[in-house]
């Protein structure tokens, strides 16, 4: 793709199967598309498979329906709500620390960081989204979480391959999907979500005290849905209302999206710190002096906002390894002028995040892990479209705050307690594959982990 951009410029026309697409790397045009003219480029590209649970999620709905659901869900991810959720994340990271201590003792210090990160994020997501009382880190064979993991990792399969090449086929594959192995995993996950919703409704019917209600994303979604729909009822409005299917579908997206991308980013960040011990030491110096001993999750949440080096490290990790490389894309309707060219209606406008983040004109020596790129004031020096790991504009990833909080809390706990270095299994440079829209290391990341002296 770099060759195409270098040869043909910042706007390259290609075909994905039979669908016309444009690779857009002109930063001003990206900002225009995603922010200034987002009302013209409001919809994401069609789903590869037009079926539930994706169909009614923020990824699948369009127009006014998307606007309504997004506005209802936005408060779920406010700073105040994230502060409430921080207790769940803190509990899960404490479990990770206990497990890493055990593995250090039994494996001469070598730890499968990829597996560790997956266990942590699966636990965190399941508990934060559904209040699911699972211990995936201690019980990796849990049926529900195994189905979820297979569903997300299994996104690269013959069905999606066919729909990529022949998008029209997706309408015919939707009825077949429930009968496939992939579809059955979808059903397993969504039915589990429905059961939790049913249980929550029973609690509400029994008039439980407010203090006894769960504090997780599902409950926050249900509360937001109830308030929004009640407001519509009282005003006799014809506005769209949020349904149970919207809740189920967006819980599914939160479970899946939060698992794969965050676990990958955490593993890659720890790998980079192991490869760059001087950066790890700078980060440790900040973290070790930030707070005395153990503190409550709420105190830690407040303090995390002030840790500049930690933020720089995470930003640089997301620059070097944006987890979703082809995810930021919009539909062009109708014929539209962009970057001095006429884009035909029906064209998919794709922002090649990986290529932008690795562009040496924007980020000198892009393969080097250098958190100093994000030192204070970087936003004023850089074009806003030069760094888009979560997208940009009204459709920026709704879970951005949650993902960053999980990364910050995990790295805070892990780097304060352990020193990470390369093991013989990880000494060579990482190799990646891109099954569909995300990057994945070909092999699991294994690092040597040593308990720091206190």
TrEMBL record:
Cofactor dependency: heme
UniProt topology in membrane: Peripheral membrane protein
GO molecular function: heme binding; iron ion binding; monooxygenase activity; oxidoreductase activity, acting on paired donors, with incorporation or reduction of molecular oxygen
Pfam families tied to this protein: p450
Highest taxon of the lineage: Eukaryota
Transcription regulation keyword on record: no
The protein, known as: Cytochrome P450
Organism: Rhipicephalus sanguineus (Brown dog tick)
């Amino acid at each position: 793709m770099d060759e195409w951009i270098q040869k043909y410029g910042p706007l390259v026309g290609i075909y994905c199967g039979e669908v016309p697409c444009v690779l857009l790397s002109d930063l001003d045009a990206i900002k225009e598309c995603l922010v200034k003219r987002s009302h013209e480029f409001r919809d994401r590209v069609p789903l590869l498979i037009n079926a539930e649970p994706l169909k009614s999620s923020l990824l699948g709905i369009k127009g006014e329906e998307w606007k309504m659901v997004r506005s209802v869900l936005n408060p779920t991810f406010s700073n105040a709500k994230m502060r409430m959720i921080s207790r769940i994340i803190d509990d899960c990271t404490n479990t990770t620390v206990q497990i890493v201590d055990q593995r250090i003792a039994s494996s001469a210090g070598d730890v499968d960081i990829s597996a560790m990160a997956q266990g942590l994020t699966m636990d965190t997501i399941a508990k934060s989204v559904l209040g699911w009382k699972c211990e995936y880190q201690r019980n990796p064979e849990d049926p529900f979480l195994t189905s979820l993991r297979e569903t997300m990792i299994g996104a690269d399969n013959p069905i999606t391959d066919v729909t990529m090449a022949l998008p029209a086929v997706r309408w015919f594959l939707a009825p077949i999907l429930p009968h496939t192995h992939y579809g059955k995993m979808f059903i397993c996950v969504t039915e589990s979500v429905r059961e939790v919703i049913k249980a929550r409704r029973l609690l509400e019917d029994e008039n439980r005290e407010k203090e006894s209600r769960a504090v997780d994303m599902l409950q926050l979604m249900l509360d937001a849905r109830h308030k929004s729909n009640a407001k519509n009822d009282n005003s006799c409005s014809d506005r769209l209302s949020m349904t149970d299917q919207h809740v189920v579908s967006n819980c599914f997206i939160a479970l899946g999206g939060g698992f794969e991308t965050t676990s990958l980013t955490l593993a890659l960040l720890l790998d980079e710190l192991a490869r760059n011990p001087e950066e790890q030491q700078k980060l440790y110096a900040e973290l070790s002096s930030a707070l005395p001993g153990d503190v409550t999750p709420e105190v830690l949440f407040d303090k995390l906002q002030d840790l500049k080096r930690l933020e720089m490290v995470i930003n640089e990790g997301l620059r070097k390894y944006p987890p979703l490389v082809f995810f930021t894309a919009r539909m062009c309707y109708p014929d539209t002028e962009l970057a001095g060219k006429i884009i035909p209606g029906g064209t998919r406008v794709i922002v090649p995040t990986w290529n932008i983040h690795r562009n040496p004109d924007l980020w000198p020596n892009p393969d080097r892990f250098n958190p100093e790129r994000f030192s204070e004031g970087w936003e004023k020096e850089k074009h806003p479209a030069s760094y888009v790991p979560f997208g940009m504009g009204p459709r920026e990833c709704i879970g951005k705050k949650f993902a960053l909080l999980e990364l910050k809390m995990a790295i805070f706990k892990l780097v304060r307690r352990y020193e990470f270095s390369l093991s013989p299994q990880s000494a060579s440079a990482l190799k990646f594959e891109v099954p569909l829209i995300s990057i994945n290391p070909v092999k699991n990341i294994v690092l040597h982990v040593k308990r720091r002296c206190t």
